[in-house]
Known about the structure:
1 helix; four-stranded mixed β-sheet; alpha+beta
Amino acid sequence: MIRVVLTVLVAVALLAAATPALEDARxxxxxxxxxAEADRVERAVGGLVAxxxxxxxxxxxxxxxxxxxxxxxxxxxxxxxxxxxxxxASGETVGAEAxxxxxxSPGPDVALRYRIDGxxxxxxxxxxxxxxxxxxxxxxxxxxxxxxxSRLALRLVDDGGPTVxxxxxx
Length: 170
């Protein structure tokens, strides 16, 4: 009987000691998976621009869709919110999300912004995929499902130069 009690106590102590490391691993894995999703969107933008010509009329513009999968489940940390936002030249958010303070670096005009489990907001930049096009969010920040899939439509229009407009589908 004493062996069973001691075994249970040791197991509980080991679990309590390992829990912070498990939470850190979940947060790191979630951040890496979201960064991979931003890379997928960037590759879709690059593929659209490389294989198409921009036109002034959005209804005639080349388009494609991409599905963004935000990690969920046991192996992922809980995500409070995730959105595709436009950033300024300094990397700061513009528009509706502008009141959120965050450390950012100069980069692309669009980013995937998310918050893991009440922590600081993080940014995964979405560039034009190695092309001379720009990327813009059509209609302000696009909120994505924090634990599932969201479909995005990409359109290549001519706004004084090739521009990929990002909108949410459904």
